[in-house]
Specification:
By secondary structure, this protein is of the alpha/beta class. It has 7 helices and 9 strands, in the order βαβββαβαβαβαββαα. The strands form 3 sheets. A 5-stranded parallel sheet has the order 2-1-6-5-7, sandwiched between helices. It has a two-stranded antiparallel sheet with strand order 3-4. Helix 3 packs across helix 5. The radius of gyration is 22 Å and the shape is elongated. The structure holds adenine (ADE). Adenine (ADE) binds next to loops. The site of adenine (ADE) has 11 residues, from loops.
């Protein structure tokens, strides 16, 4: 899978791939990353990439031409490249999107800066738009990285142990149960005693019940979505 980041600030993104799981994934060639800087496509004398808002308003907007040319350049090499714009004015990015998008061959994230991007560029090129949460960041670089990370770990061979994908939060709308490692007692706090007894069926049932409780407590919105699967979650 290839990820191309269209950004004025590649240095905000590149270091993330210099360590840990995504470093290994790039070294193994499971994922490939590339950067395209819209500033390299400017046609004005001062290499400007932003301009004032038509109709008034505070701040500056990324102008269409450099972005348009940057995306055309990418599309010329790969017409099937899948273009995603991170923006706070969009649907929320979810785990199911991460899984679905992990099957693409080439994803392009187009990061806005300043007050955002001229809407016409989004209209022309967006295959999808996503927000990563109900807050405003200073640009699209962090959202692009967040989505890239979430997508990447669903690509086969990126995670060492792919079975860990099956039991984590948001699978089936459930938050993950608490987990522990050694020592059994830390700062006078014991792990859940049942976890020490080795009865795996019992542990699985307990973990499931704890998942339900966590979801009910922290995320009532998810809890309401749970399919009953023959069990009455409301009891
Ligand atoms: N750009 C700025 N804030 C954002 C957000 N919350 N999600 C996606 N893109 C953004």
């Amino acid at each position: 899978m290839k990820f191309t980041f269209v950004t004025l600030f590649p240095n905000l993104i590149e270091p993330y791939f210099k360590d840990s799981i995504l470093k290994i994934a790039t070294q193994k060639g499971v994922i490939e990353i590339d950067f395209v800087n819209p500033r390299d496509f400017t046609k004005n004398r001062h290499n400007r990439v932003d301009d004032t808002l038509i109709g008034g308003g505070a701040g500056m907007l990324m102008m269409p031409q450099p972005l348009d040319d940057a995306i055309k350049y990418i599309k010329k090499q790969d017409p099937k490249a899948y273009i995603i714009f991170p923006t706070p004015s969009a649907k929320l990015f979810k785990q199911k999107d991460a899984k679905r998008l992990s099957k693409k061959e080439h994803i392009v994230f187009v990061s806005g800066r300043y007050e955002g991007i001229d809407e016409r560029v989004i209209e022309i090129y967006a295959n999808e738009v996503f927000s990563i949460g109900d807050y405003i960041l200073t640009g699209g670089e962090l959202p692009s990285l967040v989505m890239c990370d979430a997508i990447s770990r669903n690509i086969p061979k990126v995670l060492g142990n792919s079975s860990s994908l099956e039991v984590e939060s948001y699978e089936d709308h459930l938050l993950e149960a608490p987990s522990f490692t050694k020592p059994n007692i830390f700062e006078k706090n014991s792990v859940i005693k049942e976890f020490l007894k080795g009865n795996h069926a019992k542990i699985a049932t307990l973990k499931y019940d704890l998942s339900l409780l966590k979801t009910k407590y922290h995320r009532t919105d998810l809890y309401r979505k749970l399919k009953t699967k023959g069990k009455d979650y409301e009891k």
